[in-house]
Amino acid sequence: MLVGYARVSTLDQNPKLQTDALKIAGCEKIFIDKISGTVSDRPELKKLKEHLRKGDTLVVWTLDRLGRSLNDLLNWMAELETLEVSFKSLHERIDTCTPTGKLVFHLFGSLSEFERSSI
What we know:
Layout: E1 2-8, H1 16-24, E2 29-34, H2 43-51, E3 57-60, H3 63-66, H4 70-83, E4 86-89, E5 94-95, H5 99-118
Parallel strand pairs: 1-2, 1-3, 3-4
Antiparallel strand pairs: 4-5
Organism: Lacihabitans lacunae
Domain Resolvase/invertase-type recombinase catalytic: 1-119
Keywords: DNA integration, DNA recombination, DNA-binding
């Protein structure tokens, strides 16, 4: 099952652009937060995590909707891998269902680890 996640930073913003793209991508269920990405406790993201099952794919419009830092994204990727859930970002065209998509995320992880060890 394709499960979408959309987020806007304020209550005044409209997530329609994101939700339309997620629907076109085939998402059967979409979770929407209206909260800053810097807030770690996002209610709909928490519900989404509880909803995900082995074989599902989490779909976002852009990477920054899920995490505001590389570290956040890498933590999510590790969590999804543990759950055996794939990940797609529509804007960046990243898809961990494919070997190339997995490689991209492993490269991100390697760069992040290098950065941490260099500091």
